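Could you please consider the sequence and fold appended to this message?
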Amino acid sequence: MPYSKIAGLGFYVPETVVTNEDLSKVMDTSNEWIIERTGIEERRFFTEGEDTVSSMAAKAATVALERAGKTAEEVDAIVFATLSPDYTFPGSGVLLQRLLGVTRIPCIDVRAQCAGFIYALSIADQYIKSGTYKTILVVGSEVQSNVMETSDRGRNMAVIFGDGAGAAVLVAHEEKGKGLLSTHLHSDGRFAEELMLQHPGSQLKTRLTPEMIDNGALLPVMNGKLVFIHALKYFPEVIREALAHNNLQESDIDLLVPHQANARITEAVRKEMNMPVEKVVSNIHKYGNTTAASIPIALTEAWQEGRIKEGDLICIAGFGSGFMWGSALIRW
């Protein structure tokens, strides 16, 4: 039976840096307030006419393919995770395919929000294990800055999220016990409305009205306290599930790469897992929460910094809207 491994990683973030000080000029907030609650110091916002969800994904994918020693023509399938597609339809997967200059291969779009990259990785892993495909491009990309309102009304969400893209090239190999060991996925739709963007949707005959704009119905909403509580429960739980499945211990993890939701969540999970600071990746201070792009950006940056070495056990984990969460173990 074939197994899968990550052969190349890449990421891209827009050039425009938006600091906490910048936000404090347009809303009632401060650098200290944002850092205390989120750990974020700055984030990247896309440039209209230059950056799109698919174009950022293409830039990240091009780097990942080069590092994997692969050409776009060798990709058998694309699995694209995003909650902010370029169009309502079609999905951004085919737009990425077009930018890479390839045709006919399947493109699968995944809507699993902050757990999106793990869901996409799991889908790609199953295709490789089944022998269906040998090389799959897995991408997470988001443009979120234009759905957040940089005002007092939108403050609680606007200070958290940023734009960016990350990509991984998953390839088939024969060595058991190396590469992607397992993935573990969960969801609980009872909490769907606790973190959501409802409009414009398909529930109403008129999807978009002036009243929606005026009353803020087009803005995302989040029950921050409830999200925080569930994240602290499910992050450690799903990490331990992956370890137990592979007969491993918490001390076996060489590097934990969690979804960059909130620095306070990452720190609480680190303490719960009894892990030293140097074994947990946290880059939210630079990029904010980039949702489906968060894990591949953090994973790529950790690899670039030399924090990932041959034979290391890497754990990635994510939790977010849905609620949806998951984990994966990787023997590098």
Summary: The mean pLDDT is 97. The radius of gyration is 19 Å.
